[in-house]
Amino acid sequence: MKRVVFHGVLALLGLGLAWQASRPTEESSAAPGERLFACAPDHVTRLEWHPPHESVEIVPASGEGATGYRVTHTTEPPEGERVVKHFRGLTAVTELLGQLAPLGATRDLGDVADTQLGELGLDHEAAQLTLTCGARTQVFAVGKSAYGSGMRYLRRAEGGHVYLVSADPFRALGMADGRLMQRDLHGFESTEVAKVDVTAYGQARTLLQRGRQNPRMASWVANDDAGHVNELFGNWLRDVDRLRAERYLDEGVEPGAEPRAATPSTPQPIARLRYVDAEGHELGHMELVLVEGTPEHFFARSEATGTWVEVPASVGVSVARDAATVVGSSAAPTPPSAATATPTE
Fold it and tell me: Mapping DSSP to helix (H, G, I), strand (E, B) and coil, where does residue 9 land?
């Protein structure tokens, strides 16, 4: 009986402490969700993230038909070479901006003494977040994670109150290459596609999707043989969908001509695809090329990537091998060897 009473007292004490911690302090002047920077996600014109020895810059992609965002990730280790990577961001960057614009505080901790800022990671070594919305720019100092809360300390660069904000967007920024890079070659859903125009090895063919509203029941036919479902078309297009960006080439750099290529080589065209919806509007496009060598390398470019990206050679081999049959060409060159086409590092 004493043990039951003892545990009951502990439970009540825990509830009391939790209630006390949830109450706003006297210094707190803001309710949870207070906006520290008001801007709609799609109105953000620049985001900059500057932790020590690293930076991430995100701006809307430019150019005709460009979609998504251009991300520049720079690392500058104290010892070693400076590395700059450019790539496109779409779905993940859109989600990130939705977390930061508008930027809301979970809690206002009020004024904090200068002597305590270092303990929160808000001293001169703090990471900096810069958000630009049209003509307005705000810089924030971002400190350490608040223990056990999933939050980080944040303060306007010019000073003022210290706030707690969600740590989620900063985790994504801290792993920009892995979390923000657009790896899918398209941003639309397969159910939106009514037809695909395919060009390969000097031949062209249009494939029509039947029953597209239900992916499990969907099938593909050729426009010149609409009464005959050909499973090869669906299998081939599924292989095409498995092409994912492993790394991005710099803007203006062609496959086979990049600095890391051992021997410059002219890319061999494999296939071009144009995706169209039921109203006849283009949803997107993709082109695939092969750079011969040992091993062979495959590169693709689409509306979602903007620039050339290297894709898994093991999948590229399959797409290249069956493309000739899909378009009905007998003039295809010898397909690449799966034995020599290995994934890139």
Answer: helix
Mean pLDDT of 306-327: 95
Is residue 70 within 8 Å of 58, Cβ to Cβ?
yes
C-alpha–C-alpha distance, residues 50 and 56, integer Å: 7
Q: What is the CA angle 158-159-162, rounded to 5?
A: 135
Place of tokens 């011969």: 292
Q: Which residues of 288-316 are buried (b: 16+ CB within 10 A; e: fewer)?
A: bbbbeeeebbbbbbbbbbbbbbbbbbebb
Q: What Cα–Cα distance (Å) separates residue 73 from each residue in 88, 89, 175?
A: 11, 12, 10
> In the predicted model, is pLDDT for residue 18 greater than 80?
no
Is the pLDDT at 44 greater than 90? The verdict is: yes
Neighbours of 153 (CB within 10 A): 23
Burial class from Cβ neighbours inside 10 Å (0-12, 13-18, 19+) for residue 129 reads buried
CB 220 within 8 A of CB 206: no
Question: Residue 29's pLDDT is what?
Answer: 40
Q: What is the DSSP string of 120-158?
A: GT-STT-EEEEEEETTEEEEEEEEEEETTTTEEEEEETT
Cβ-contact 85, 107 below 8 angstroms: no
Residue 208 class from Cβ within 10 Å (0-12 exposed, 13-18 middle, 19+ buried)?
A: middle
| Distance (Å, whole) CA 21 – CA 11 | 16
Place of tokens 């969700």: 33
The two tokens of residue 5 are: 């009473």
Instruction: Please give the average per-residue pLDDT across 44-69, as a whole number.
Output: 92
Per-residue confidence (pLDDT) for residue 251, from 0 to 100: 87
Confidence of residue 329 (pLDDT cuts 50, 70, 90): low
pLDDT at residue 21, as a whole number: 33
Tokens of 223: 């426009």
Give Cα separations from 103 to 34, 50, 154 (angstroms): 8, 17, 11
The β-bridge partners of 298 are: 290, 311
